[in-house]
Amino acid sequence: MDIKNLFFSYHAKEPFIAIDELKISEGKITTIIGPNGCGKSTLLALIAQQLTYTAGEIYIEQQNISRLSRKELAKKLAIVYQQNEAPEQYTIRDLVKVGRYPYRKGLNSLSADDLTAIDKAIELTGLVALQDQRLAELSGGQRQRAWIALALAQETQYLLLDEPTTYLDLHHQFEILDCIEKLNKNANMTIIMVLHDLNQAFQYSDEVIVMSKGKIIKSGQPTVTMSEELIKGIFGINVQIIEDIEKNKHILPLRK
């Protein structure tokens, strides 16, 4: 994915997002990090064409996505928000079926290809045993996995996730992140997500994009990009980055 000269503003006075150039690697997990209000979720919404940018271009597979129809775009990328809504009486399987809308014509019944895609999405997210349960009966982590399954049923190369672990306890946060990591490895999906937890970004990302005030401050591999100095400059806190016996790096906030 290539982003060039991207500008967006909620108000006419000055741009909220101003990105000269950004390349997001295919087949990787890329996490966008930065303080509240820096433009992380807005950038994701611009990529998903949920917001209209003032200027600039976004290319997927050398196609300018602003020129694609809604159905054409839905075959290339899917997005899952931190909060999603659907009728509570829907089962997981009912919800995942919705992901096939880009391929259906009118009110035609599901094709064999549709059913295969639905079954695969449910299996990849570990929801086979729960697929007939209603959304109202699910835990927060199960419900989020169901929405990810819906996105997978779209059979896209790109999966966008806006703070997928928000409102979940630690167990369900790692359940979702493990699911995302599995999708990247097993389905070779390009995943772009927004996270607040820097340690989770360290652990689950191939690359990170650091944002501040609508601009890209730095991007690259987490171990190279995220330094104690950068974190203090962006978030205003002192931290210590330590390395464990398995060469994993962890960020420890220091008391003032």
From TrEMBL:
Instruction: Enumerate the GO terms in the molecular function aspect.
Output: ATP binding; ATP hydrolysis activity
User: Which is an annotated Pfam family here?
Assistant: ABC_tran
What is one process in the GO biological process aspect for this record?
Answer: iron ion transport
The record's annotation in InterPro entries points to:
AAA+_ATPase, ABC_transporter-like_ATP-bd, ABC_transporter-like_CS, P-loop_NTPase, Siderophore_ABC-ATPase
* Coiled-coil annotated residue ranges, if any: none
Membrane-crossing ranges are: none
Keywords, ordered alphabetically: ATP-binding, Cell membrane, Ion transport, Iron, Iron transport, Membrane, Nucleotide-binding, Transport
Compartment(s) where it occurs, according to its Swiss-Prot or TrEMBL record: Cell membrane
Domain ABC transporter residue range list: 1-238
Q: What is its main location?
A: membrane
Q: Which domain of life is it from?
A: Bacteria
Q: Name one GO cellular component term.
A: plasma membrane
Report the membrane topology from the UniProt record. Peripheral membrane protein
Q: Which PROSITE patterns match?
A: ABC_TRANSPORTER_1, ABC_TRANSPORTER_2
PANTHER family per UniProt: IRON(3+)-HYDROXAMATE IMPORT ATP-BINDING PROTEIN FHUC
The protein's name is: Iron ABC transporter ATP-binding protein
Give the source species.
Kurthia sibirica
